[in-house]
Amino acid sequence: MADRGALKLVGFIFATATLAVMLVAGMVVKGYADGAYTLEASAIDASR
């Protein structure tokens, strides 16, 4: 049987990582919604 303290620690680590990923994803989505990022090609002249 696994130690409950270790399982709580592992759960806390996974919960923290999940929260961090969700926060970053939310910030990226908000950035796209606000127009800070675009999916179109940049305006750099590629004919050079």
Give a verbal description of the structure.
This is Signal peptide protein. The chain crosses the membrane at residues 7-29. The protein is mostly helical and 48 residues long. It has a domain at 1-31. It is built from one helix and no strands. It has one helix at residues 4-34. The chain is rod-shaped. The model has no long low-confidence stretch (mean pLDDT 86).
Can you describe this structure in just a few lines?
The chain is mostly helical and 48 residues long. The chain has a domain at 1-31. Helix content is 65%, strand content 0%.
Features:
48 residues, single chain, rod-shaped, mainly alpha
Please write out the topology:
Blueprint: H1 4-34
Task: Characterize the overall form.
Answer: rod-shaped
As a percent range, the share of helical residues equals 55-70%
What's the number of helices?
1
Radius of gyration: 20 Å
Strand content: under 5%
The low-confidence parts are: none
Rounded to the nearest angstrom, the distance between the terminal CA atoms is 66 Å
